[in-house]
Amino acid sequence: MYDFNHLTPLDLSPLFLTERVNLDGKKKAEFAKHIHEKARLNIERRTEQYAKHANKGYHKLIFESRDWVWLHMRKERFSAQTHFKFLPRRDGPFQVLERINDNAYKLDLPGEYKISATFNVADLLPYDVLVSQ
């Protein structure tokens, strides 16, 4: 224990007897690299498993310019209006003017709203003409 300077938690892991007895520096370095590579692969594999489980049922919504969407209005957007609970929660349909990125869109809002026309994708729902009629 006193002949080796521990830099990482993997350095504290017990080595196999053949590796502890072997004092060749090159073999010891190769063995440490091998252990680190195995640990890295295991961490990557587990991270992929966690992501797969966490994203189960998630589907990505991407709107294009000129698509029609419903807008879900949150209280934070309309803080100036005191009687928000009497207003409709969803309004639309509105046309998408521009896709800023996959997460933000600019809508064609009428001037009566007096708010920014940029919305997060979480506030948008696709407008289906067949279902609406």
UniProtKB/TrEMBL annotation:
Protein name: Tf2-1-like SH3-like domain-containing protein
InterPro entries: SH3_Tf2-1
Pfam families for this protein: SH3_Tf2-1 (PF24626)
Residue intervals of the Tf2-1-like SH3-like domain: 67-127
PANTHER family referenced in this protein's UniProt entry, alphabetically: RETROTRANSPOSON GAG DOMAIN-CONTAINING PROTEIN-RELATED, ZINC KNUCKLE (CCHC-TYPE) FAMILY PROTEIN
